[in-house]
């Protein structure tokens, strides 16, 4: 009970604005009931002893009576405390035999290891162990689908969740435990709920704030070469040529992860929709195809031109995103395409880079629009888990204000959570830039049957770089796969 009181006080001190009074009332009633029962038991014990002594004609003095009563009460209280402590230890000992498997792709968990650290602390508190099973990004979807089909899914699994692909790809109504009614749902940002829901039921819990990808560049390199951040494709190309002529690789591309190369294509969906009115609705109703978007083809053609011009260097096929910190810090590369918070993580590893990083949005196809992804990594509980209740308890722990704050502070790459009660840590430069430029929703979370093509699109673009496909063939391939999946799902708009 003491722990609960401390937790409650902490919540109040944190000015938790969405405090659920009915939950508090339930807390008081349940805990108060326990307390009153304990007090009543003690009173009855004392009364029984007194009556028995009177009936037996006990001739003890008043002092002796008080001493006896005190002894009896002390004994009862000690026994109650011992029993409670023993029960707690027994419960913890029993839970030491419980291990929750936690499956995730590499980018599904912060690279800082903060989630694993929180899990270790949770094991210390409860005895429940969390066994993390991490799979490379490029393999995770296939691995997880195979495990689910075989009835061998991890107790908890992490996926990139979005509103239009969740049911199609993962069928949570059949494969996941519903979380509807959990207290923490009301505290999670409402914009995230559609990404973890099917119908009226909620199946997942998410933590990162919305995703934004843009280019980070080394200011010293730009200043030394007399360059400014580009605002269109022609400027971008000229900047890269100047940097290359200076013996520096212009752009860090990371093909090894399987997804990095397709970011320009999908992240600029908001820009496409600015040009083509009602684009996303038309795509979802099969009134337009991806091949009907000239700007999408332009992006692919320009990516190919960058590769042919040597702007990615020689090692881009073996590069992974984890390598761009050192590559930018040591000046080997001038720019990299990364998400919100990358700069903070860079400075954490290379403090000398403080104040030396600038940002600009992707200028492919002359776009000046920031792509916003309201969905992110989310955790789900497998319907085949033997420890669904224990997994729910772990989710509740992760959703406590103290742990949420710990997670934010322990992940340099994360500057905001989708939990309004936790203040974001945006650099002022980010705020100013976001305010200065237009934004739109990225394609993969708004257009049906694109999320499922995520990794396949990456393969197609890699093939384009290897001269195995043309930009036109890549776009047609992406569009054809959408059609195939829509037909497979029995979508009425494709019949």
User: Would you state the CATH class of the largest domain?
Assistant: Alpha Beta
What class do helices, strands and sheet pairing give? Answer: alpha/beta
Spatial shape: globular
CATH topology title of the largest domain: D-Maltodextrin-Binding Protein, domain 2
What is the CATH homology-level superfamily of the largest domain?
Periplasmic binding protein-like II
Work out the radius of gyration.
29 Å
Total helix count? 20
Give the percentage of residues in beta strands.
5-15%
Number of domains: 3
CATH architecture of the largest domain: 3-Layer(aba) Sandwich
Low-confidence parts: 1-71
Residue share in helix? 40-55%
End-to-end Cα distance: 60 Å
The number of distinct β-strands equals 13
Kindly report the oligomeric state of this protein. single chain
The main pleated sheet reads as: 6 strands, mixed
If you had to describe this structure to a student in words, what would you say it looks like?
The chain is of the alpha/beta class. The chain folds into three domains: 93 residues, no CATH class; 134 residues, Periplasmic binding protein-like II (D-Maltodextrin-Binding Protein, domain 2, 3-Layer(aba) Sandwich); 232 residues, D-Maltodextrin-Binding Protein, domain 2. It has 20 helices and 13 strands. Strand 1, helix 4 and strand 2 form a beta-alpha-beta unit. It starts with a helix and ends in a 7-residue tail after the last helix.
């Amino acid at each position: 009970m003491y722990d609960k009181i401390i937790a409650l006080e902490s919540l109040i001190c944190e000015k938790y604005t969405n405090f659920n009074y009915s939950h508090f009332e339930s807390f008081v009633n349940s805990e108060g009931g326990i307390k009153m029962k304990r007090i009543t038991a003690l009173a009855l014990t004392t009364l029984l002893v007194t009556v028995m002594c009177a009936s037996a004609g006990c001739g003890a003095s008043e002092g002796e009576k008080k001493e006896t009563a005190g002894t009896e009460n002390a004994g009862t209280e000690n026994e109650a405390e011992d029993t409670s402590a023993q029960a707690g230890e027994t419960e913890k000992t029993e839970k030491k035999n419980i291990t929750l498997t936690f499956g995730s792709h590499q980018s599904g968990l912060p690279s800082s290891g903060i989630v694993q650290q929180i899990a270790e602390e949770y094991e210390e508190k409860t005895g429940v162990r969390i066994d993390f099973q991490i799979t490379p990004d490029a393999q995770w979807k296939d691995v997880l689908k195979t495990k689910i089909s075989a009835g061998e899914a991890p107790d908890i699994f992490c996926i990139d969740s979005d509103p239009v692909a969740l049911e199609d790809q993962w069928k949570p109504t059949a494969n996941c435990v519903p979380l509807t009614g959990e207290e923490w749902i009301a505290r999670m940002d409402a914009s995230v709920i559609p990404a973890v829901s099917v119908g009226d039921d909620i199946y997942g819990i998410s933590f990162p704030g919305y995703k934004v990808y843009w280019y980070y560049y080394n200011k010293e390199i730009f200043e030394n070469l007399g360059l400014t951040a580009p605002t269109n494709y022609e400027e971008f190309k000229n900047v890269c040529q100047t940097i290359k002529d200076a013996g520096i690789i212009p752009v860090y591309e990371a093909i090894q992860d399987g997804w990095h190369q397709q970011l320009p294509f999908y992240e600029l969906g908001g820009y496409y929709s600015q040009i083509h009115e009602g684009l996303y609705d038309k795509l979802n109703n099969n009134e337009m195809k991806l091949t009907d978007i000239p700007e999408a083809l332009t992006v692919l053609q320009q990516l190919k031109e960058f590769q042919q011009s040597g702007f990615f260097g020689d090692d881009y096929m073996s590069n992974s995103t984890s390598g761009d910190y050192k590559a930018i810090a040591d000046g080997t590369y001038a720019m990299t395409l990364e998400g919100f918070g990358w700069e903070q993580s860079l400075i954490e590893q290379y403090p000398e880079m403080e104040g030396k990083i600038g940002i600009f949005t992707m200028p492919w196809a002359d776009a000046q629009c920031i792509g916003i992804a309201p969905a992110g990594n989310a955790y789900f509980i497998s319907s085949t888990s033997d420890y669904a209740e224990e997994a729910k308890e772990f989710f509740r722990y992760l959703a406590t204000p103290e742990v949420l704050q710990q997670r934010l502070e322990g992940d340099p790459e994360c500057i905001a959570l989708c939990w309004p009660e936790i203040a974001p840590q945006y650099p002022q430069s980010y705020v100013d830039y976001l305010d200065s430029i237009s934004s739109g929703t990225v394609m993969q979370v708004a257009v049906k049957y694109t999320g499922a093509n995520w990794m396949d699109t990456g393969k197609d673009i890699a093939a384009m770089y290897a001269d195995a496909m043309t930009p036109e063939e890549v776009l047609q391939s992406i569009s054809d796969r959408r059609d195939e999946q829509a037909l497979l799902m029995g979508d009425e708009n494709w019949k």
